Amino acid sequence: MCELRVMAILMCPPDHFGIEYEINPWMNVAVEVNHERAVEQWGAVERLYNQLGETIELASPVAGLPDMVFTANAAVLWRRRAVLSRFHHAERAGEERHWRAVLEGLGFDVREVSAELSFEGAGDALFVGDHLFQAWGYRTDAAVHEEVATMLDVESTSLELVDPRFYHLDTCFCPLDDRTALIAPDAFSPESVELARARVPRLIEVPAEVAAGFACNAMPLAGRVISSSASEAMRGPLREAGFDVVSLPVDEFMKSGGGVRCLSLPLELGLP
Ligand code: ARG
Q1: Does 168 qualify as catalytic in the annotation?
Q2: Quick check: is 98 catalytic?
Q3: What strands, in cross-sheet order, belong to the sheet with 75-78?
Q4: 221 CA distance to ligand 1 middle (Å)
Q5: Which residues line ligand 1 (CB under 6 A)?
Q6: Distance, CA of 207 to CA of 200 (rounded, Å)
Q7: How many CB atoms within 10 Å of residue 186?
Q8: pLDDT digits over 201-249, tens only?
């Protein structure tokens, strides 16, 4: 069957971005975001995606929802289905109806997890090939993993996060292609590292101090790994694995606990 694959990346401009509450160890309301720098850094990510031939879909930012800039947390997507996030913290719950509207507008069949469970989308759910890895420990309930896998009709492996700095899977794990992923082993229980090892043929290990610079919070695109300045430290090992590193400063967003990947939700807008 011939399938037209149209790829795009969902982003949300940082108009209303700021540190207005503290829901992870990186956030400190006393630290001010330099708005101009945030706009510049976000714009550089968007420009690079454009230069690499990606289409950008923009979600409209909403005043009072400063974390909407982190589109990775909208939902997990697979084919034409979306499982919408149900945020663990009340501070982000207001985003949910906006993400539903955005995803429906893009043509996704939007599903939801059981009311009492929390789930934070592509922040905690990432595919290596057609196998889904889902994390639990901070934002997403382990009990939701099976529901999500069933709704998407995929196999899933559950990984336990154990370091609050790495509160989302996408801060410490990054699929680069169908058989390769970055992983910061210290962020996971030893059993979970073994589960990942058993499933992913090539795991590139990232030291915790490099991952703490949001190096794993990366976007693989056209043979490149696009990530924060900290990803410079991974240039050697990534080159050996056949990937080029493109590092961009995203320190304004790191003040909120996010990097390049958090700002990006890859969409597959192919026609079935
Ligand atoms: N301040 C946001 C939060 O704590 C940051 C989200 C980062 N996104 C991500 N996909 N890791 O929820």
Answers
A1: yes
A2: no
A3: 75-78, 81-84, 109-111
A4: 21
A5: 23-24, 27, 67, 70, 72-73, 92, 123, 168, 170-171, 256-258, 262
A6: 18
A7: 18
A8: 999 999 999 999 999 999 999 999 999 999 999 999 999 999 999 999 9
